[in-house]
Amino acid sequence: MHPLEVILRVSLVFLFAQLVLRLVGRKELGRYSTFDLALLFLLTVCLRRTLVGDDDSLTTGFIALATLAAWDRFFSWLSFRDRHAARVLEGRPLELVREGELVHDNLRKSHISQKELLSRLRTHGRDDLRAVRAAFLEPNGQVSFLFRESEGSSSH
């Protein structure tokens, strides 16, 4: 296969895969179950022929890998240099809790139930949303919590 064809095929598949993963949402990417890992593995198996066709040569494999690495490096650089590009490529944090109250619209958008949010809160050793000043679904799929200061601490 001609090297430019490999670069074009890999680029198109990579960009399409990025779009699909972006549409899937960050909640799903923030936790890897055995189903998720199997899906990722099978995705690579399914796309292998799309990327390099019937060409099993080392050169084609190296070109495909270098193209994927170049796209990844380019998007990282672009996200670092341009905050608008970073917002599109990486997303923004989504507020899930504000002053101890659930932000129901954002929970619905992110497909996170109250039960799941409480489960994630318990991993921080807490079980009461009233102790949470704010919680955000981060672009990487993790939920970060900002807690209220305790009554006895000086916050002034």
Helix content: 55-70%
* Total individual domains: 2
Rg for CA atoms: 21 Å
What is the assembly state of the chains in this entry?
single chain
Overall shape: elongated
Structure class = alpha+beta
Q: Give the integer mean of the pLDDT values.
A: 82
- Low-pLDDT runs of 5+ residues are 151-156
β-strand amount: 5-15%
Let me know the number of strands.
4
- Secondary-structure element order, N to C: HHHHHEEHHEE
* First-last Cα distance: 67 Å
Query: What's the arrangement of strands in the largest beta sheet?
Result: 2-1-3-4
- Figure out the total of helices: 7
Features:
4 strands, 12% strand, alpha+beta, 2 domains, four-stranded antiparallel β-sheet, 156 residues, CRO Repressor, 7 helices
3D architecture notes:
The chain folds into two domains: 3-90, no CATH class; 94-147, bsu07140 like domains (CRO Repressor, 2-Layer Sandwich), CATH 3.30.240. It is built from seven helices and four strands; from the N terminus they run H-H-H-H-H-E-E-H-H-E-E. The protein has helices at 3-24, 26-29, 34-52, 58-81, 83-90, 104-110, 114-122, and strands at 94-98, 101-102, 132-137, 143-147. The longest helix is centred in the middle third of the chain and has 24 residues, at 58-81. The relative contact order is 0.13. Mean pLDDT is 82; it is low at 151-156.
